[in-house]
């Protein structure tokens, strides 16, 4: 799903991203769900383009959405922007009810602030003890999200109910990493015996047409993770 090269004044959409990034991939899934055409631009994060640096001069990170040449950085902000900028493109990601909107935002922030942080620590911790402690924290965060799913879904298939919404997209983009974890570390995170609701939800989300071709295959993530681990080890030894 890609438009002609652009991002100029005619309102074209362009995503500056990187295939392993769950933050970039959540933007792409959202665009697919809303039926919006865009150009996907893969960034080399070891040699960032001038366009990326100019578009996100504060954080210098992916993703950035360019809409008519105007940059919108930060993935969760981009999801909200898509709802606001394209109200006729459905489905709307955030719920209409103010309380449910606040709950969805809370748990999306938890995914980014807690789950992502402990997963990075479990992968790149300097010692085996640090990695083990972070792995335990990762399981605890997933169990917390299991409870959130039970509460938010109302017994339906997605956090948002019958169809995926803001929180599903925000968290669903991590499924590639969650699935690859046993290949990277030998530990299974999406354990149906431990978090059955999330394990079933992950299968359901990954099967969506909007997610196919966006969520990376586990073997590709595992290969990329080895590179990250090697960089972290080299940095720790210097």
Automatic annotation (TrEMBL):
It comes from the Eukaryota. It catalyses: RX + glutathione = an S-substituted glutathione + a halide anion + H(+). It is found in: Cytoplasm, Cytosol. It is an enzyme of class 2 (transferase). GO terms for molecular function: glutathione transferase activity. Its main location: cytoplasm. CDD domains: GST_C_Tau (cd03185), GST_N_Tau (cd03058). InterPro entries: Glutathione-S-Trfase_C-like, Glutathione-S-Trfase_C_sf, Glutathione_S-Trfase, Glutathione_S-Trfase_N, GST_C_Tau, Omega/Tau-like, Thioredoxin-like_sf. Its EC number is 2.5.1.18. GO terms for cellular component: cytoplasm; cytosol. Residues 97-224 form the GST C-terminal domain. GO terms for biological process: glutathione metabolic process. Residues 11-90 form the GST N-terminal domain. Keywords: Cytoplasm, Transferase. Belongs to the GST superfamily. Tau family. Is involved in the conjugation of reduced glutathione to a wide number of exogenous and endogenous hydrophobic electrophiles. This is Glutathione S-transferase. It comes from Setaria italica (Foxtail millet). The gene is LOC101779885.
């Amino acid at each position: 799903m890609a438009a002609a090269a652009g991002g100029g004044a005619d309102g074209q959409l362009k995503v500056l991203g990187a295939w392993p990034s769950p933050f970039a991939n959540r933007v792409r899934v959202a665009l697919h769900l809303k039926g919006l055409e865009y150009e996907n631009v893969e960034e080399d994060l070891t040699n960032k383009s001038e366009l990326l640096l100019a578009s996100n001069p504060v954080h210098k990170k992916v993703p950035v959405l360019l809409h008519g040449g105007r940059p919108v950085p930060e993935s969760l902000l981009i999801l909200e922007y898509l709802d606001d900028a394209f109200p006729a493109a459905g489905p709307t990601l955030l719920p209409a009810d103010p309380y449910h909107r606040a709950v969805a935002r809370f748990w999306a922030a938890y995914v980014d602030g807690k789950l992502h942080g402990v997963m990075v620590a479990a992968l790149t911790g300097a010692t085996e003890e640090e990695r083990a402690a972070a792995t335990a924290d990762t399981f605890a965060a997933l169990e917390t999200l299991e409870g959130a799913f039970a509460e938010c879904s109302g017994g339906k298939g997605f956090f948002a109910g019958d169809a995926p919404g803001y929180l599903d997209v925000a968290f669903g983009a991590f499924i590639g990493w969650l699935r690859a974890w046993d290949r990277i570390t030998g530990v299974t995170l999406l354990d149906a015996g431990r978090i059955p609701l999330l394990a079933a939800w992950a299968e359901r989300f990954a099967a969506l047409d909007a997610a196919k071709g966006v969520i990376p295959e586990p073997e590709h993530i595992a290969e990329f993770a080895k590179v990250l681990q090697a960089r972290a080890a080299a940095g720790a030894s210097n």
